[in-house]
Amino acid sequence: MSFNTPWVLFLLPLALLPLVLERHHSRAYSWLQLLPGDPLSDLIGLLLKILAVIALLFIILGMAGPHSTQQQIEKVGEGAQIALVIDRSASMDDPFSGTTSGRAGETKSAAASRLITQFINQRKNDMFGMITFSNSAMYVLPLTQNREAVLAAVQAAAGTALFQTNIGSGLTSGTALFDKVPDSGSRAMILLSDGAGRMGDDVQQKVRDWLDRMHITLYWIVLRQPGGLSIFDENYKPPENAALPPEIELYQYFKTLRSPFHAYEAEDPRSLALAMDDINRKEKKPIRYLEQIPGRDYTRHCYGLAALMIALLLAVKYLEVRSWH
């Protein structure tokens, strides 16, 4: 048991005042021996004092704000620990390259926010964390089961964008979300971008090691640019003496990871929704998770019991005999 204002408990001795103070009668007698003996009245008088003590006791306890402490219960369910790593470069504010199936003009960022919200609402046992990146990574939310915080973060991710795509910073920050968090048995990182960037050898090695050490499955959803290359085009050959395009180079790097990797391409909101549905099906594994059980507030119970004691005192007060005929 805990209290919001524990210093109020120092007032508890005041609850004994009814036992110490003598009751002043409304009528005076010259000699109390003239009054007949009444053991029943004496007993009732003692009970009234006890009721008054209990009433004061619960009033003071109510003022202290008693409540039980928060508890954690381990449960087994279906779900995962999922890190959302979302591209917030300026190109994410452009419409999709393909048809939009009735959602004309919907930007990539708006469609991503809408579909990720649906994805989160379908998954009741998951922990979600979030990183956005453009010029650099921005830490948005740690891994949490707080649904309201996660949904608010997703909505905020559809805000103003910047220009560059520092995908290496986004990946390293995304894997760092799992550090010092107990492994539930199923971990995934969803990388959603409309392009790619080049990563240095040291960053590539760091991402490879962290994904493998932390047992993270990587999902990459590529939102294709109008007329852009497909990462699945095995026949593509760069011009002579030219480097591979960043998105194809990144795809080839991801295929060398020791940890599981899946890639998707989305040209419109419908294909993006299909990619999210496929991830939803794949990441339904048995996991152990801790459910937070909030503590109960007993303030109202204390005031209610105090009110009951006071009501009993008032009821007996009206039964008091003030004089004899």
H/E series, N to C? EHHEEEHEEHHEHEHEHEH
CATH topology of the largest domain: Rossmann fold
User: How many helices?
Assistant: 9
Mean pLDDT, rounded to whole units? 82
- Oligomeric nature of the chains: single chain
The CATH class label of the largest domain is Alpha Beta
For the report, how would you describe the main beta sheet?
A: 6 strands, mixed
Give Rg in angstroms: 34 Å
Work out the helicity level: 25-40%
Summed up, the domain count is 2
Total beta strands? 10
Under the CATH scheme, the architecture of the largest domain is 3-Layer(aba) Sandwich
How many angstroms separate the termini?
54 Å
Spatial strand sequence of the major β-sheet: 6-5-4-7-8-9
Short note summarizing the structure:
With 325 residues, the protein is an alpha/beta fold. The chain is built from 9 helices and 10 strands.
Provide structural commentary.
This protein has 325 residues and is of the alpha/beta class. It folds into two domains: 2-69 and 295-318, no CATH class; 72-291, 3-Layer(aba) Sandwich (Rossmann fold), CATH 3.40.50. The chain contains nine helices and ten strands. It has helices at 17-20, 39-64, 108-122, 147-156, 167-176, 201-213, 246-254, 269-282, 299-318, and strands spanning 2-3, 66-67, 71-79, 81-87, 127-133, 137-144, 187-193, 217-223, 261-266, 285-293. It has a six-stranded mixed beta sheet, sandwiched between helices. A two-stranded antiparallel sheet has the order 1-2. Strands 3-10 form a two-stranded antiparallel ribbon. The longest helix is centred in the N-terminal third of the chain and has 26 residues, at 39-64. The chain is rod-shaped, with a radius of gyration of 34 Å. The two termini are 54 Å apart. The model has no long low-confidence stretch (mean pLDDT 82).
